[in-house]
Design brief:
With 230 residues, this protein is an all-beta fold. The protein contains one helix and six strands; from the N terminus they run E-H-E-E-E-E-E.
Length: 230
């Protein structure tokens, strides 16, 4: 008769897979071979082992968003239009009698003296001295001892003068008169009615948009977090 011992139980309650792997599993002996011969006893015993796990329930909380209605107060801007006065300036004209000097021009002519160069040919004569001629003159005499002495000196004589005439161009500035005319300014007073601009104030109006803030209420959907099980 083969008698099996109670199975070894290594129960580990695991909440997570990682926690289960943290424990080492014990060795198993699922197969047992028994051999009997004439020398063995009639009764043979042996043991088998197996790792057995069981499931256990556990609770886990979770969060859900629950919608709910709530009254909310808010400010609403309500536009309205108002007429706002403002000051503007316009240009008007009034008639005034005024006098002022006016410059006019009139043509005036008068004689003006100018100068112009005039040239003519004329014969100009002048005296030219004659050529000079020179010769040696020897003079002899006696000295205090009664001995003859001679000296030679050079004597020059001026030849007779001659008249020489040349044709030359002679120019001079000769005055002459001519009439010149130009516009000369002159002033005279003119009077009359003129339109004089002036500024005057006027009141105008423009529309402006303004706002009144009104308190109102409305229902809005909000959410709250609730923890539930399981």
């Amino acid at each position: 008769m083969i008698r099996f011992s109670a199975l070894k139980k290594s129960l580990a309650v695991c909440l997570t897979v990682m926690a289960c792997h943290a424990f080492a599993e014990p060795d198993e002996a699922k197969v047992l071979n028994l051999k009997r011969n004439s020398a063995t006893d009639l009764t043979m015993t042996g043991s088998l082992s197996q790792n057995v796990y069981h499931e256990e329930e556990y609770q886990a909380d979770y969060t859900v968003s629950i919608p709910y209605e709530e009254e909310e107060t808010y400010q609403e801007a309500v536009p309205y239009t108002v007429s706002v006065p403002y000051t503007d300036y316009v240009t008007d004209y009034r008639s005034e009698y005024q006098c002022h000097n006016v410059t006019h021009y009139r043509q005036e002519c008068h004689q003006v003296t100018h100068y112009r160069q005039q040239c003519h040919n004329e014969v100009q004569c002048h005296t030219v001295p004659g050529d000079q001629t020179c010769h040696d003159v020897t003079e002899c005499g006696t000295n205090v001892h009664g001995q003859p002495i001679c000296k030679t000196r050079r004597v020059c004589e001026q030849g007779s003068s001659q008249q020489r005439c040349d044709n030359r161009q002679v120019c001079s500035n000769e005055p002459y008169s001519e009439q010149e005319c130009r516009n000369e300014p002159y002033s005279e007073q003119e009077c009359g009615n003129v339109q004089v601009p002036y500024q005057r104030e006027v009141t105008r109006y423009r529309d402006e948009t303004r706002y009144n803030y009104v308190t109102k209420t409305r229902m809005v959907t909000k959410y709250r977090q609730e923890t539930r099980c399981c």
